[in-house]
Each structure stands twice: as C-alpha cells, then as structure tokens.
From TrEMBL:
Source organism per UniProt: Sediminibacterium ginsengisoli
The entry's keywords: Signal
Location of the Peptidase M20 dimerisation domain: 208-299
GO biological process: folic acid catabolic process
Protein name as annotated: Aminobenzoyl-glutamate utilization protein B
GO molecular function: dipeptidase activity; para-aminobenzoyl-glutamate hydrolase activity
Length: 479
C-alpha cells in the first residue's frame, strides 16, 4: 500500500513537472512567434498613429485591424452594437471563450510629430496621446498568436478580439456590453499604454458625462439688450452654482467642464450656448447622485436667466471590478516577458523628452523594470469603459512602458513616444503578456472557475445597468 501511494505521488509530481515544462516551451515559442511579426505590427501601429482618428470616426484604423484579422483566418463582424467602427473577430469554437479588447481612437488637440520637442503636424489636429494605436495593434497580435495555437490543435476553445471605438469619452464598450456581446465570454484580457510595466490593480472612476444646452433670445447687445435672453448667462450661472457645489460633495468626486459654444460675437446676445460636463467618483451610485444635482443646477440656471435648457447624455462608465486571480496569472507572465530595453539613440530621445516635462522623472532605464503585483486599490484617477466589461465578465489588464518613464498620458510627449520604437517596443511586451495569459487560461481552465468565483463575490447581487441609459451611440460627440 505504502509503495503504491509513493508511486502514485511520484507520477503526479512527474505529470505536474511535465505539464509545466510543456507550458514553458509553449510560451517560449509564442514569445518568439509574436516577435517575428514585429515589423508588421510596428507598421500597423504607426499607420494608425498617422491616421489619428477621433472617437467613432476611426474608419481607416478599424478597417486596417479588421483586414489583418481576416487575413489571419478570423471571422470578422463589423458595425456591431450600432457603431460603424466597432467589430468582433472570432476564431475557433466552444469553450472557453477568451476575449481581448482592442482600442484605436485618438484625442483632439494633440497633433505632434515623432520628435522630442513640441511640434504639431501641419494640417492635423488630433494625436494618439493615450497610445490606442498601440493598444489595438498589440491586442490583434495576441489574438493572432492564440488563433495559431487553436488552429494547430494545441488546445481547444474560441478566441475573440473586440474592436472597441471611442474609449476617450465616447463609452464605446458600454454599447457592446449592453448589446450582450460578452455574454458567452469566460474571461477578458486587455492592456493600456503607460510609462511603466505593471498589472492593473487600481480601479477606475465611474463617470457620467453630458452636454447641457441653453436656448435664449438674440438681440443687439447695446441697442436692445432688454429684448435678449443670454444663453451664455445661463451657462455661466450653471458653472457658478456647480463650482459652489464642489464644497458639498464627497472629496473623492471630480467635476470638469468646458464651454463648447459661448456665442459668436460680443455685440449679439447669444441665443444658444453649450457646456460639456464630466462627473466622476470611485462609486457609480455617487456619480448618479452628483449628476442629478448637476441637472438641478442647470434647471435653476435656465429659470434664473429666462432661458430653456435640455441636455444629452454623452457617456457613462462603471468603476473597474478587479480580479486578483487573473492578476496573479498575468503578473507571472509579465515577469517572464520582462520590460523594455532602449538603444542609445532611444535613451537620448528619452532624456530630451524628460527634460521637457518640468519635473524629475524616473530613470529612462526603469522602463526595463517589472513592478510587483499591488494590493487591490479601489480609487483610480481616470475612467474607462473597460469598467463596464469588468461588471459583465472576469477581466484583467496591464500597462507596459510605451512612453519614456515619467511621461504623462494625454500629452504631446506621449504622442511623440507613440510614433517611435519607444512605443512599439512596449507594445510588443503587452502583446506577449496577453497571449501568454490566454495560454494559461486555455491550458489551466480551473483558473477560469476560480476567477469567476471571485468575480461573483465582488459583484454581489448587482445587476448591470448602463449609466448612459438607453441612448444610442453618440456617434457625433466629437463634433
């Protein structure tokens, strides 16, 4: 009996060791295979960087990624969730279904050449200040690698790449979640460009945004001001009340606005004016409450200025539901892949970028560092529509160093880095880590069950409801 037990244990240990050896060999092969496609993926990302298309207008960017996926055997469905530039691309069949998110929208007002001094591209307004050209390309690269392994019958299942437009304020993924496009998915993998290498263990702020529009009466501002009713006065009255309100909201809340239309000429009483607001907080319920107070301020401003008001919800995203189980899996793979190494020319570029920042940044060489897995932290600084995905399916993400360390997102410096191999090298780190994480989920499906148990516990009895309601996609929100 004793010998039998020892023999059985020995076999179990041997099988475990063999399984680990096989997994490591598979991952080594995947890393090499993805790297062999570097020139293709670099050119794809730089083409999208050059297109610099705004949210819901990413026609060429989306088409380029779809073309690459089709050429690699994916079945692509375009125009999903009522969004012309959104798509899904699938390969394989059955469970598990692993989803990978791909973004590709740019930001207005961030035109910049790929050089370490501020210099916009002539005739162009937008730029990839958040690196979504890298985001979408790396996700497609990871998806293609998993497709190859399914095709070669290394494992079974379905890989699905989601083409996600308009993350920057347009809430593109919310419509895809609302449409039920993630209902059969077991886990979702994503990433985001950044200035360091780490698995995301910090939540995001829930966010609700709207454009408030006021309608008054035009009149000559000098000859007959009494006959006019200024829509701009209403905007300013609303802004004043909201700014007073800041003292009486939770300190974690954030409210920002920009006047998008304040009239056309000083001597004409404006009959139309518009202000665009964001409300953010770590908890979605607080966002709802603060937004309701915002609308009451808008109504009060309209009453006080004898104007009329309406508003259009533009976007709304949940906080990010973090998954420690998946985070630990991704951390192991990030450590296996490692960070980014720069050439002497790239180091010189990076030092010039850092000199322009106006503050002391981490060493350029720190892009090679992989940060340890952090404890879950609920209050993030930004917002993302990945949050809505995370309330629908267990989700995990990372950031990799696609910008010189210290570079802030949404800056001309980030755009400049993204147009060089500083960006595309970091992109490849993300592609490899996502592919390796997916390999673990296909080959160790107990991880999916564990992640799902954690997901259900974290979500509790909450039933998903989009913060933007039932509105159709705001396809012209950048106009």
């Amino acid at each position: 009996m004793y010998k039998t037990t020892v023999t059985l244990l020995c076999w179990m240990v041997l099988l475990s060791v063999n399984a680990q050896t096989t997994s490591n060999a598979l991952k080594t092969r995947a890393i090499s295979d993805i790297q062999s496609g570097y020139e293709l993926y670099k050119q794809t990302a730089l083409s999208i960087w050059d297109y610099a298309e705004l949210g819901y207008k990413e026609t060429k960017s989306s088409a380029l990624l779809q073309k690459l996926l089709k050429e690699n055997g994916f079945e692509v469905t375009a125009g999903v969730a009522g969004i012309p530039t959104a798509f899904t691309a699938s390969y394989g069949s059955g469970q598990p279904v692993i989803g990978i998110l791909a973004e590709f929208d740019a930001l207005p007002g961030l035109s910049q050449q790929a050089m370490p001094e501020k210099k916009p591209v002539t005739g162009k307004d937008a730029g990839h200040g958040c690196g979504h050209h890298l985001f979408g390309t790396a996700s497609v690269a990871a998806g293609i690698e998993i497709k190859k392994l399914i095709e070669q019958k290394v494992f079974k299942g379905t890989i699905r790449v989601y083409g996600c437009p308009a993350e920057e304020g347009g809430s593109g993924k919310v419509y895809m979640v609302r449409e039920g496009l993630f209902k059969d998915v077991d886990a979702v993998i994503n990433w985001h460009p950044g200035d360091q290498n780490e698995v995301t263990m910090t939540s995001a702020l829930a966010n609700k945004s709207a454009k408030f529009r006021f309608y008054g009466k035009a009149a000559h501002a000098a000859m007959a001001p009494e006959k006019g009713r200024s829509a701009l006065d209403a905007v300013e009255a609303m802004n004043y009340m909201v700014n007073m309100m800041r003292e009486h909201i939770p300190q974690e809340a954030r409210i920002h606005y920009v006047i998008t239309n304040g009239g056309k000429a000083p001597n004409v009483v404006p009959d139309f004016a518009e202000v665009y607001y964001y409300v953010r907080h770590p908890k979605k319920d607080e966002v709802k409450d603060i937004f309701e107070r915002l609308t009451r301020a808008a109504n009060g401003a309209a009453m006080g200025t004898d104007t009329k008001m309406d508003f259009e919800i533009i976007g709304g995203t949940h906080d990010l539901l973090l998954n420690r189980t998946l985070g630990e899996v991704m951390q192991q793979n990030l450590q296996l892949v490692g960070g980014v190494s720069y050439s002497p020319e790239e180091i010189a570029f990076g030092e010039k970028i850092q000199a322009s920042l106006g503050f002391k940044a981490p060493p350029v060489s720190s892009a090679s560092t992989v940060h340890p897995l952090k404890a879950v932290f609920d209050a993030g600084g930004g917002s993302t529509d990945v949050g809505d995905v995370s309330y629908s399916v267990p989700t995990v993400g990372l950031q990799s160093a696609t910008w010189i360390p210290g570079t802030p997102a949404h800056s001309w410096q980030a755009v400049a880095c993204g147009g060089t191999e500083v960006g595309t090298k970091g992109m490849m780190v993300a592609a490899k880590v996502m592919a390796l994480t997916a390999i673990d989920l296909y080959t160790q499906q107990s991880l999916i069950g564990k992640a799902n148990d954690e997901f259900k516990k974290a979500k509790g009895d909450y039933k998903y409801e989009a913060l933007l309601g039932d509105r159709k996609p705001a396809l012209n929100y950048r106009d």
